[in-house]
């Protein structure tokens, strides 16, 4: 979980611990879009979840999710292969543990797109390594419009997600940061700013006391 000097760190003289950036939101607010932008910019490694949900037309196995059946999900859970898991909108979702451990051990940051139940579990297990961001839509009307425009889910699924959105939105108080995603590029800039600041947190930097000691012992003569 500790990195040596990492290039993503804007202070290259000290090392940094890897962190997990978690994005949650009601369905359709835009967390997947923001997460994918970060990953495309190589600002973190995406955690690919397993799910029992049916694959959407545009989704690719192993890129968006690993699509598994319920028996396989239960077996993974019983073998303790999931860092966290939850039932969301009537389907099971979980974060495979091994890739997370491997990535953090290599000193890289991770990005999670998971719900509030999973966020609680990860925060409890790795309290010092998690930064949480809740994404809100600018209005409920726009949330509905985005789900309809996305056109990836049948009407009854959209209706169910809109009902669940009211419960999910109340969880914003549990998160470190909140982004109201009106303009996507503004929201993305906010997300990058959060990540940049969190990467510089004093207790994430390794070797800082030694570095400062070295500074203080420098002789200018
Ligand atoms: N700021 C924005 N303005 C307009 N459309 C947006 C904005 N952000 C995202 N969208 C669009 O809204 C739709 C929903 O976004 P996205 O799939 O990222 O939501 P989500 O929160 O991940 O939903 P889910 O939980 O269902 O996966 C997508 O079609 C996306 O392109
Ligand atoms: N607790 C977890 N929640 C997850 C995980 N992967 C995704 N999700 C959340 O589920 C809903 C629905 O996602 P969708 O892709 O079906 O629209 C959304 O809130 C995701 O964030 C996971 O591994 N664990």
TrEMBL record:
- Supply the EC number(s): 2.7.4.8
What keywords are assigned to this protein?
ATP-binding, Cytoplasm, Kinase, Nucleotide-binding, Transferase
Q: Where does ATP bind?
A: 25-32
Domain of life, per the record? Bacteria
Q: Which reaction does it catalyse?
A: GMP + ATP = GDP + ADP
Could you tell me which residue ranges the Guanylate kinase-like domain spans? Answer: 18-196
Tell me the enzyme class. transferase
Subcellular location per the Swiss-Prot or TrEMBL entry = Cytoplasm
Q: What does this protein do?
A: Essential for recycling GMP and indirectly, cGMP.
Family assignment?
A: Belongs to the guanylate kinase family.
Name the record gives this protein: Guanylate kinase
Which species expresses this protein natively? Microvirga terricola
Supply the source organism's classification: Bacteria, Pseudomonadati, Pseudomonadota, Alphaproteobacteria, Hyphomicrobiales
């Amino acid at each position: 979980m500790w990195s040596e000097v990492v290039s993503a760190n804007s202070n290259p003289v000290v090392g940094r611990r890897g962190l997990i950036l978690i994005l949650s939101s009601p369905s359709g607010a835009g967390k997947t879009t923001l997460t994918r932008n970060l990953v495309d910019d190589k600002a973190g490694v995406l955690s690919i979840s397993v799910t029992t949900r049916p694959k959407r037309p545009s989704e690719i196995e192993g890129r968006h999710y690993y699509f598994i059946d319920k028996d396989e999900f239960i077996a993974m859970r019983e073998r303790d292969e999931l860092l966290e898991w939850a039932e969301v909108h009537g389907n099971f979702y979980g974060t495979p543990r091994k890739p997370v451990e491997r990535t953090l051990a290599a000193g890289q940051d991770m990005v999670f797109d998971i719900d509030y139940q999973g966020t609680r579990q990860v925060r409890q297990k790795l309290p010092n390594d998690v930064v949480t961001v809740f994404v809100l839509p600018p209005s409920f009307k726009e949330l509905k419009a985005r789900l309809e425009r996305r056109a990836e889910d049948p009407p009854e699924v959209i209706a169910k997600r809109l009902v669940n959105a009211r419960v999910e939105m109340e969880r914003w108080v549990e998160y470190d940061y909140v982004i109201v995603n009106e303009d996507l590029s503004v929201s993305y800039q906010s997300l990058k700013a959060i990540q940049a600041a969190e990467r510089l947190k004093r207790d994430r930097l390794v070797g800082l006391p030694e570095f400062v000691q070295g500074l203080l012992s420098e002789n200018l003569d």
